[in-house]
Design a protein that fits this description.
mainly alpha, Growth Hormone, Chain: A, 17 helices, disordered N terminus, disordered C terminus
Length: about 425
């Protein structure tokens, strides 16, 4: 714990406020992810256009993470979170507003979706970067605070989809998007009112130099860390394979097999329930587990239920398979970002975390768009078999990567950051 954190009295309210704001923002994102693709699918009947929309969603996340990191470091974590939420809410509100008034062309929808998702990743990067400081104020181990953040995200995955499915069925996608915009506004208000200004990055640690120099500094750091770079490479491939599952395949799957947005919400909730349980288990036991073995085992298990989905089973089996995927996926982010924060200086945190998100999702837009077109060409079953096979090969290859052995070796620099800068 650093000197500035020792001087601050123990306060848990700022941490809890940030976690609550993150939950609202995450629920808003989930509503967008469900409402927008479902709107496109129902109004056009085109899996290709649905896939294109999903691809734009992921592309926005990539661009926002890649280019937003330096801005997060420059604005400060608190201010960047507020600005990102307000701007995201505005773009979401414009979708139904234009649709109801002047009309909304498909290309205009894509532009608004791109703008909105470009702002989501910097907001999440900022809140993740706040965790070590807020945990220090709360007198809480950073590992526990980061597990709580992941649990909030998993809870949002659990509660948001059925809520979104019911709201879409009752109110329609347009009205639901207005509610979505309100969640972003409330999240921004909570950060503004509940997270103290002194938690902004100290002026002496602010980035020096031009924007692109700051951007390259973060990328050079990732390249220099072979462990982080190895994880990013696997994440690029697995996200290419599994991003279409949630953005394209499951909406088409739910429509073809069950014909209901409510069922789509239930399917997403199954994943969310498993993810929440996996996150809580990792929060309780993760510090005792071997990191490398845990990472590889979880990543392999994430892809196995896709084989089950390829058989088009009943709804209970489908939900159970997605719950298993969520259970294995729950520990991945806390574990990965634990390693990242142990190795990342504070003044680089926004850029490195933002670039990490962007690089991990870099191939996902192509995967989502390609899957949309392939669904129309070869069908749902073959796509799922291909995803499952590719996932198994990639994740098992991690057993032969020597860089991952460093995960179980505590970095020398971690001695000074073990209590305040170790996880996200």
């Amino acid at each position: 714990m650093n000197d500035s954190q020792r001087a601050v009295p123990t306060q848990r309210l700022p941490l809890f406020t940030m976690l609550g704001a993150t939950g609202l923002s995450m629920v808003g994102n989930i509503i967008t992810f469900l409402a927008v693709p479902w709107f496109v699918l129902q109004t056009t009947g085109s899996a290709a256009r649905t896939g294109l929309t999903g691809g734009v969603v992921v592309l926005g996340m990539v661009l926002g993470g890649f280019f937003g990191g330096p801005l997060v470091d420059r604005l400060g974590f608190r201010r960047a979170s507020i600005v990102a939420d307000l701007a995201s809410g505005l773009t979401v509100a414009l979708i139904p507003l234009l649709y109801i008034t002047a009309g909304l062309a498909f290309w205009q929808l894509l532009v608004l979706v791109l703008l909105g998702t470009c702002l989501d990743t910097p907001g999440m990067t900022a809140r993740q970067s706040l965790i070590p400081d807020l945990a220090g104020r709360a007198g809480m181990p950073v590992e526990r605070a980061n597990s709580a953040l992941q649990a909030i995200e998993s809870s949002s995955d659990l509660l948001g989809p059925p809520l979104a499915g019911v709201l879409i069925a009752l109110l329609g996608p347009s009205n639901v998007l207005f509610l979505d915009a309100a969640t972003f506004a409330l999240s921004a208000a909570m950060i503004a009112g509940g997270v103290p200004r002194p938690l902004l990055m100290p002026a002496e640690k602010a980035p020096i130099g031009g924007y692109f120099a700051n951007l390259l500094e973060g990328l050079r750091f990732i390249r220099s860390e072979q462990l982080i770079l190895s994880i990013v490479i696997v994440a690029v491939i697995t996200n290419f394979l599994d991003s279409p599952i949630f953005l394209v395949i499951l909406p088409v799957y739910a429509d073809a097999n069950f014909g209901s947005a409510v069922v789509l919400g239930i399917m997403f909730a199954g994943f969310g329930a498993g993810s929440l349980i996996g996150t809580l288990l990792f929060g309780a036991l993760g510090h005792r587990l071997p990191r490398r073995a845990t990472l590889i085992a979880c990543w392999v298990v994430v892809g196995l239920p896709f084989w089950v989905l390829a058989t088009s089973p009943s709804l209970p089996v489908t939900v159970a398979a997605l719950a298993i995927t969520g259970l294995a996926a729950g520990p991945l982010n806390p574990l990965i970002f634990t390693v990242v924060q142990e190795r990342t200086p504070e003044h680089l945190r926004g850029r490195v975390i933002g670039a990490l998100w962007a690089l991990a999702l870099a191939a996902s837009p192509l995967g989502v768009v390609l899957t949309g077109y392939l669904l129309e060409a070869v069908g749902l079953r073959l796509i799922l078999v291909g995803v499952a096979a590719g996932y198994l090969v990639v994740t098992l290859s991690m057993l032969f990567n020597p860089a991952l052995r460093e995960m179980d070796e505590r970095p020398r620099s971690a001695e000074d950051t073990a209590t305040d800068d170790t996880t996200i």
